[in-house]
């Protein structure tokens, strides 16, 4: 059979559908076969059949018996050089030499009388090889490899996930222009940033034999650096160093990034929640914007958001980081409401290419219970309050009049009067007994609270909803302590 180099268009040798190409000799019984490309315009193929030498063109259309040496001879192997055909008979320990001018496809006479016999005295020979320099005349090493220079890729097309490049023809070294180089191996070094904060880079190589190549599976809106080196079979065989050219720096087009991962929301106080997430995979230092959205279940059309940029922009809110690589921010919400929270990411200023995380549902803590005036006199008040069970881990009551320069804690010792402000707890209710107040004076009250997951003070309320007034001196005093 014969076919193209890729195995396609396979055809029977010396036979076709119309039997126009015919040879009476069976190629399957051949002992040895060689293709002679000395005359590149008309290459021939020779093979041995017992004591015979057969010639045919490489298209397998007709053949010619060049010689028959007689039944006592069996040709085990043949080889050729520029001038001669060499036929080896192991049984006779002879090499038969025939000049190729007597072995043409159109030759009419039996060429046996032109054979020369060369005896071999060495035992156990099974194969002979012609070492005529004309068969494989290697040039010097520098002519086998491409010239070392700074080759560069030419960018043809850029998408969000791929880069198509054109690769240059190799240049032969000076004085080697008449030689054709072996197939070029193009080695492209691809590198990109992994982390803006650590300035880490990832580099890998791709290789091809084609002049046009598409680098695939890239990340949108990411800066890549491409370097090119040329190699071939002989560069690899001789273990020569590669010379990479200068960087070609470019950025892939914007496209949708992977969604933020492992989004969690933690309620901190009745009005504050923390949103945590892991950055998308394969972010590769791309400048991205994050937007945290929250939607009240009671008011689904009233979506709110806050925007962040990474790397940070002075005009946009900055993100905080945890030790395990997560980023987070805090958002202000309303007490006692249920919310849906999700995180959106998009490259740079291309908000059309956004990707959202899944929704996370949270229920905010209710507001603390109200402060109640449970007793009052001209110089004292009783304030009662019920703490939230298993929610507030620390609480302080403070009060202040318009004349007081700052807030004062209820339970602290009064150094002027040497008296203690007392508190008592009865079941779930805490009652504060406040003394040494001024008559007919309004006092504002607030709580300083601590919640389990938030180590900062939560001041409640921020407005002045709890204002109580002491009695005047002419009024009868109510009992304060019980």
TrEMBL record:
InterPro entries per UniProt: ECM_Regulatory_Proteins, FN3_dom, FN3_sf, Ig-like_fold
Origin: domain of life: Eukaryota
Keywords (A to Z) from UniProt: Kinase, Repeat, Transferase
GO MF assignments: kinase activity
Domain Fibronectin type-III: 149-255, 259-369
Repeat recorded as keyword: yes
NAD among keywords: no
Protein name: Proto-oncogene tyrosine-protein kinase ros
């Amino acid at each position: 059979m014969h076919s193209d180099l890729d195995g396609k268009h396979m055809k029977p040798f010396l036979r076709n559908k119309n039997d126009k190409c015919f040879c009476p000799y069976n190629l399957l019984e051949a002992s040895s076969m060689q293709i002679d490309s000395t005359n590149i315009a008309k290459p021939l193929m020779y093979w041995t059949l017992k004591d015979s030498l057969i010639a045919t063109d490489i298209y397998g259309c007709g053949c010619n018996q060049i010689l028959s040496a007689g039944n006592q001879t069996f040709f085990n192997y043949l080889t050729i050089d520029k001038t001669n055909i060499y036929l080896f008979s192991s049984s006779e320990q002879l090499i038969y030499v025939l000049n190729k001018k007597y072995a043409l496809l159109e030759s009419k006479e039996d060429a046996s009388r032109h054979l020369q016999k060369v005896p071999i005295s060495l035992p156990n020979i099974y194969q002979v090889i012609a070492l005529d320099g004309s068969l494989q005349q290697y040039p010097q090493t520098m002519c086998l490899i491409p010239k070392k220079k700074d080759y560069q890729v030419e960018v043809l097309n850029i998408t969000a996930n791929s880069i198509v490049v054109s690769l240059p023809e190799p240049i032969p070294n000076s004085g080697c222009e008449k030689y054709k180089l072996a197939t070029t191996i193009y080695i492209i070094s691809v590198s990109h940033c992994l982390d803006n904060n650590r300035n880490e880079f990832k580099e890998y190589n791709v290789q091809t034999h084609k002049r046009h190549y598409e680098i695939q599976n890239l990340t949108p809106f990411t800066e890549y650096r491409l370097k090119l080196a040329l190699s071939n079979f002989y560069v690899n065989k001789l273990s020569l160093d590669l010379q990479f050219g200068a960087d070609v720096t470019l950025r892939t087009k914007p496209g949708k990034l992977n969604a933020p991962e492992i989004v969690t929301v933690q309620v901190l106080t009745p009005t504050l929640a923390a949103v945590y997430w892991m950055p998308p995979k394969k972010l590769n230092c791309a400048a991205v914007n994050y937007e945290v959205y929250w939607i009240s279940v009671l008011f689904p059309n009233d979506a709110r958001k806050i925007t962040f940029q990474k790397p940070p922009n002075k005009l946009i809110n900055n993100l905080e980081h945890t030790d395990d690589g997560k980023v987070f921010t805090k958002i202000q919400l309303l007490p006692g409401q249920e919310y849906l929270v999700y995180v959106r990411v998009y490259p740079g200023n291309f908000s059309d290419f956004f990707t959202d995380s899944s929704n996370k549902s949270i229920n905010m803590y209710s507001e603390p219970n109200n402060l109640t005036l449970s007793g009052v006199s001209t110089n004292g008040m009783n304030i009662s309050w019920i703490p939230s069970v298993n929610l507030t881990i620390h609480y302080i009551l403070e009060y202040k009049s318009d004349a007081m320069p700052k807030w004062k804690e209820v339970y602290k010792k009064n150094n002027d009067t040497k008296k203690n402000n007392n508190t008592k707890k009865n079941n779930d209710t805490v009652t504060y007994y406040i003394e040494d107040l001024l008559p007919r004076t309004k006092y504002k009250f607030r709580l300083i609270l601590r919640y389990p997951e938030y180590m900062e003070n939560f001041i409640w309320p921020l407005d002045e909803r709890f204002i109580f007034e002491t009695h005047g001196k002419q009024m009868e005093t109510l009992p304060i302590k019980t």
